[in-house]
Structures are given as C-alpha cells and as structure tokens.
Amino acid sequence: MTTTSDYAKEITRAAAEMGLRLPLVVEPHDKSVTVNGLRFHYLDWGNEDKPPMLLLHGGAQTAHSWDFFALAVRPDFHVVALDQRGHGDSQWAPDGDYSLESNQRDIHSFVQEIGFDRFVLVGLSMGGRNTLVYTGTHPERVRAAVIVDVGPETRREGRRQIREFVTTTDEMDSVEAFARRVMERNPHRKLPQLVGSLQWNLKQLPNGKWTWKYDKLLRTPGFRPARGTVEDLWACARNIACPTLIVRGGDSLVLDREGAEHLQQAIRGSHLVEVTNAGHTVPGDNPLGFEAAVKPFLKGLP
Question: Number of folded domains in the chain?
Fold first, then answer.
C-alpha cells in the first residue's frame, strides 16, 4: 500500500539525503502475535506471494531499524521485521528472562505462528547472534542467513562501549538530545537521520521527558543476560550448511577482521564482505553500502 503518511514522507526524505533509490515507499503493517506467553509486535511489508525473509534487530533497537533495507528488498521478498522480547513495542519479559535460549524459543514459535518456512534470516548484533544460533540449530527451516557484525567472539572494548552507552542517563528532554548523544559515539550518522530513526526507539514520559522503549532491566548496570558459551556458538556456526553471508562494518569496534574471517572459515561455503564507512550498526551507518553488499548474495540464492 503506497501512502502519503508522515512515515512515507520521512523515509523518502531520509533516503534522498543518503542517496538511496527506493523502488517504492510502502508503509509496513503493524501486526502482533502472542507466543510463549508474550505479545510480540512486528512489521510486515506484504508481498505474501514472495519468498519469506525475517529481519532481527540489534540490542536496544527495534524492527524499524530495518526500514531502508526492507524497502530495498521488498520487490523480491515477503519481508517481516520482529521486535524481539523487551524491545520496541513487544512485551517485556516479566521474569527478566532475556537469555539466548528464550530468544531462540521466541523465534521458532514466531515463525511457526506466521507460517514462515524455508525463509531468509538476517540479523544484526544481538539479532545476528540469534541468527547464527537459530540457523545452526534449525537447518531445515532457514534457506539462507546474513549475519551482521557479530560472531562467537567479539572485541571486549566494543562491548564495553556499547554497555557504557546503554547504561548512561536514560531520560532526556527531546529526541534530538538523544540523537546528539548517539552522534558523539557514532560519526557515521547525521543528525536528521538519527532523529528520524530514534523516534521508534523512544517514548515520552508523563513528565515530558523521553526515554528508551526497551526494558529498563536490559540497561541496568550489572545485568547480563545469558548468551551461551563461546564453544556452543562455534558449534552452531560449524553446523550451518545453508548459503551464508557475513557482513562486517569496516570501522567496527565489535567484530574485527580476524574474528570475521574465523567465522567465515567455520561456516562452510560462507562469504565475507566488509562495508566501508560503517561501524557496528552497518545497515543504519551506511544503508547504501549494506544494500550493495547483500543484494548480490540474495540474487545468487538457488
């Protein structure tokens, strides 16, 4: 459905600023399902007659972090982006369970509920780890995988910086104030782009201030959800048999070149590509470069 809504106007403006040529600006449908006792929100760009694709965002992000990429690949895929537990407009876990295992159960129950089978799975950071594990443990369901800037082993300094950012003051006077704070750590983003994207990550409080949408527990100093052992993650990587693309941000502080190459060696027949002018959040830092890296891989799928 082509719209003239604020969403469509904002996406069109932001895409033009970054040199993106979107084939058609279509507003996704907001949908929800309840699985594993939680209500999950997701975005659906339609085209149900096309091959299915599921997009998994990174920690502290939402399904809307995939807006540009979803529109770029929508002509060839039925694209769905999930707000994972505790994020976006999905329900927070009342028991505080944000373990790798709970995320895996969510993904499996979700794709069964919406009828996805033999789908392309794309994930960034936390979503990339979930992609790696799900693909390694459910090879019969995943047609192809794209793992973005994460691996079984990542750089401690990069993890520290992310953790430091998400546990700092989480109430500010405006969306723009949050955007400027992000810019201090991420030089790849421009202020208008950040203001447009952060609106989906934030909510306004009764006192007029703004804060993150995702569960406060996840940004509490000292909280560490169980993420599986490094050995288990490598075992999952070695079990992946479908076509797989590993994408690394050229300036990433989280996944270094050595770690990306090690992951490529562990996943049989996988390909590795680096996107220049991008840090850890590759699809948002350089949407055009990310699209150029992933589209040829998708077109080459059997």
Answer: 1
- Residue 261 to residue 218: CA distance in whole angstroms: 30
In a domain, 129, yes or no: yes
d(CA 91, CA 214): 9
Following DSSP, what letter does each residue of the chain receive, concatenated? -B--SHHHHHHHHHHHHTT---S--BPPEEEEEEETTEEEEEEE---TTSPEEEEEPPTT--GGGGHHHHHHHGGGSEEEEE--TTSTTSPP-TT----HHHHHHHHHHHHHHHT--SEEEEEETHHHHHHHHHHHH-TTTEEEEEEES--SS--HHHHHHHHHHHTS--EES-HHHHHHHHHHH-TTS-HHHHHHHHTTTEEE-TTS-EEESS-GGGGSTT-------HHHHHHHHHH--S-EEEEEETT-SSS-HHHHHHHHHHSTT-EEEEESS--SSHHHH-HHHHHHHHHHHHHT--
Q: CA end-to-end span of the chain, whole Å?
A: 29
pLDDT tens for residues 57-75? 999 999 999 999 999 999 9
Exposed/middle/buried for 150, CB within 10 Å: 0-12, 13-18, 19+?
buried
> What's the CATH number where 276 sits?
3.40.50.1820
Please state the pTM of the whole predicted model: 0.94
For the stretch 52-61, pLDDT in tens is 999 999 999 9
* 74 within a domain of the structure (yes/no): yes
